[in-house]
Amino acid sequence: MRKHALTLAFGTLFLLALIGQSIAGFFVFNDEQASHGEATVSFGEFITSSHFVVDVAENWQSEYLQFFLYILVTIWLVQQGSPESKKPGEEGLGSDEEQLVHEHAKPASPAWAKVRGWRHTLFSNSLLLTMGAIFLLSWLAQSLAGLVVYNDEQAQHGEQLVGWAEYVVSADFWNRTLQNWQSEFLAVGSMVVLSIYLRQRGSPESKPVGAPHGESHATG
């Protein structure tokens, strides 16, 4: 457990937060149903409803977009002084020797790091591809669940229903999307800049307390 404590801690926090969101959302949804003179639903019905799914998915897609973009842009872009960045001059994909691939691989290196061809290319980009795939799937789930919620609201007001293509270019969809994106971009940008000048002793997300402000890619 000690070797996997970080994963276990965040996995537990995730489940507790998701359960808490589902309970709070359940009461809010039924309060709104009652205020409109409509039937309330059971907890099981709520957590399988589009109303719950859209709230979860719109947060997931923004988080995985954040990681996808950060992994991608930090290949080529640097910020001097930030432990979140490579050192200036180290931009790019790195040499085979630096990446421990092909003939430079170690005995314990993953098998696909030692080979050439499509397997090596796939494994070399597997983290970025996985983050991108989860983002797209979450975004798709948000659009489909959001469409159901939007059309429910349209029907309640006696207004025209819309199709998926219309919904994904609507203000409702992009309001849900961009309110999450802007917060993710702000958080990442703040971390990059603040970590130049501020420290947290013992954290790998911080430089050593005594490291110069201009030193990049040093962790404490």
Relevant terms:
220 residues; mainly alpha; 9 helices; elongated
List how many beta strands DSSP finds.
Answer: 0
Which structural class matches the secondary elements?
mainly alpha
Q: Which bin fits the share of residues in helices?
A: 55-70%
Shape: elongated
Instruction: State mean pLDDT (0 to 100 scale).
Output: 91
| Percent in strands | under 5%
Instruction: Tell me the radius of gyration.
Output: 23 Å
Main sheet characteristics: none
Number of separate helices: 9
Description:
- The chain is built from 9 helices and no strands.
- By secondary structure, it is mostly helical.
- The model has no long low-confidence stretch (mean pLDDT 91).
- The protein has helices at 5-35, 43-47, 50-76, 96-99, 111-114, 118-124, 126-156, 164-167, 171-197.
- 14% of the residues are buried.
- The longest helix is centred in the N-terminal third of the chain and has 31 residues, at 5-35.
Question: What is this entry, summarized?
Answer:
With 220 residues, the protein is mainly α. The chain has nine helices and no strands.
Itemize the secondary structure elements and their pairings:
Blueprint: H1 5-35, H2 43-47, H3 50-76, H4 96-99, H5 111-114, H6 118-124, H7 126-156, H8 164-167, H9 171-197
